[in-house]
Amino acid sequence: MPPWPEHLGRPGRLALTLLLGLAAALLAERVHLPLPWMIGPLLATAGCCVAGVRLLGSTRLRNAGLVAIGMALGLYFTPAALAAVLQLAPALALGVAWALLLGYGFYRFLLHVNGGDRATAFFSATIGGASEMAQMAERHGGRVDRVAAAHSMRVLLVVVLIPVGLQLAGVHGVDTGLPAVQDLRPAGLVLLLAAALAGVALLHRLRAPNPWVLGSVLVTMALSGAGVELSALPREASNAGQLFIGVALGTRFTPESLRSAPRWLGSVAAGTLAMILLSLGFAWALARFSGLHPATVLLATAPGGIAEMCITAKVLQLGVPLVTAFQVLRYIAVLTLSAPLYRRELARGTARAG
């Protein structure tokens, strides 16, 4: 007989995983953890998977969660909020430059750790989406397993440490903003969902990266920025989205991933902690330059995932439109520039070796 819970089959394992995630979310909410609907399921499923319990995540549910989060974020882009973001173009450009510089420094550190494997180190260090970076690493001869493990470890640490740190520092609601519409309108919600899914379908057809977040957030942002107020999003939809994303992140961890390269993951963890500390300093400096709150700038420029950092901003009420704009722009810039920058770095390395 297969080991427990594999004998339950895929539907049973998925149901068990979601029940565990739900229980962990409710417990995290009860003990007042920040982002309880994401951090609770993430830690619970990651802990069980590392212990050898073969839980199962769902890509389809994760994608549905990303659509819900994208819609929730886009609703914050009122005409006034959109105009304020556009006035911060210089700060947005500095945020992109910082992400590239931070990733390059991390790359140089990982290159020393893994014995000169440039592709693996570069795409593990680049602050982009895990699946996109893993695909680029595979095309350039890198180790996909190490790249995926590195991004999972980075996101786990950032998602847990930064929200907890902000909560302990008492930073909550210091840069508030309200969605364009705050009441639930069933007919409007159907239209909003249809528009968001149309945006997702269009970006998916164009083979754009992460169409689930970008398609839904860009369409909802455009509608809200134009003053079209269809409906708010139910709180339960946002919570479910966080639950699905947390479970998807947690189930990436396995005992094999920790045993196969403990020094590599330890180095990734150390490098991630260093990046968080450096980001604190950069957030303070950029806040003084731009007049923004340092906590908002930290979430906008932290080396986390786009969905995770924007959810943190939403839950802690820390400049949701600004954080979303920073993260979306950085995400697009990093994905666009990663391959050319790697080829340039590879050419420089070859020239030095010659």
Model description:
The chain is an all-alpha fold and about 350 residues long. It has a single domain (about 10-354), classed as Na+/H+ antiporter like fold, CATH 1.20.1530. The protein has 16 helices and no strands. Helix 5 packs antiparallel against helix 6 (about 120-125) and helix 13 crosses helix 14 (about 295-300). About 50% of the residues are buried. The mean pLDDT is about 90.
- Give the uncertain stretches in residue-range form: none
CATH domain fold name: Na+/H+ antiporter like fold
Radius of gyration: 20 Å
Helix content: over 70%
Termini, distance in Å? Answer: 57 Å
CATH arch. level architecture: Up-down Bundle
Give the strand tally: 0
Structural class by SSE content: mainly alpha
Question: Helix and strand string, N-terminal first?
Answer: HHHHHHHHHHHHHHHH
Principal-axis shape = globular
SS summary, helix count: 16
Main beta sheet strand tally, sense and closure: none
Q: Which CATH class?
A: Mainly Alpha
Oligomer: single chain
Total domains: 1
Mean pLDDT: 88
Strand content: under 5%
Please outline the helices and strands:
Layout: H1 9-30, H2 36-50, H3 59-74, H4 79-86, H5 89-113, H6 118-125, H7 130-139, H8 144-168, H9 186-205, H10 211-225, H11 235-250, H12 255-260, H13 262-290, H14 294-301, H15 306-316, H16 320-353
Helix pairs in contact: 1-2, 1-11, 2-11, 3-10, 3-11, 3-15, 5-6, 5-13, 5-16, 6-7, 6-8, 7-8, 8-13, 8-15, 9-10, 13-14, 14-16, 15-16
